Amino acid sequence: MWYKNAFSSLLVGYVEHHTLFSTIGRYPAQCLNVGIALKSRLVYDEAFKHLVGQSANFKNGKSFDGLSDSVQAIIQRRAQELYHVRMEVMMDLMSMTLAVNDGAMRAPDYPTNVVSQHQEEESYCIVNIVRDWMSEHIGHMRSESHHPPTSSYLCAHETDCISVAGFFRTVMADGETYLPTEKVLDDWKASSIGLMNPREDDDEVMREALASLKTMAAGYVKDLVGSELQLRDTDRLQYLTCVKVGLEDVPWDTESDEDGSEEMDEDSD
Question: Among the four residues 40, 81, 172, 186, which has the most C-beta atoms within 10 Å?
């Protein structure tokens, strides 16, 4: 029909001016309805990923004005799936540990002989520092608070570590992005524990332990920080956009949809 051709021309114009995907990001609910009305998978899928990510930031989800109940239900189903995956990853982050004399380990090969206050206490100290850092940020996210947490010796919260997506990006980033090694060692040495019977090789043992835990943590969050958006500038988003849109997520018969296979240059926007 003529309006579909006109819409296709409009899409091309948006892409050429690098504004299509950023516009969808600003108005995802409205754009989702446009995608539904014109059966455009290009628009629908992009908007859907934004809405699922935003809703998944909350335990009970988030509703969006202007969407039908049936579409809201699809979004909430996928948002709950993402929320529970995120919770599982956060539990993994808070339970990380190291094996005695065997470096970092993770499920399913969980070590039976782990570091403790009785075995390799320096590594055990690092394990607890990392767990405390994780718990401080995860506790803030689970509280769904809009107020930043109080700055502590663990983190000044000067980066985007307190938003949901920002936390996982921080964990995935370069090892010195959070819990910088030398600061951790300085804090440890200044504590009463660090002053008791220090050994010459303590620093190296603790550096290796910290690096191993950060590598382990990055492995846990890798799939969550990947974005399925066509929008390229996603580093400032405060929600996860790793959702893949399946046929079961589309509220129309895609088999008979002639406009459901639009393709745009992936470098657009």
Answer: 40
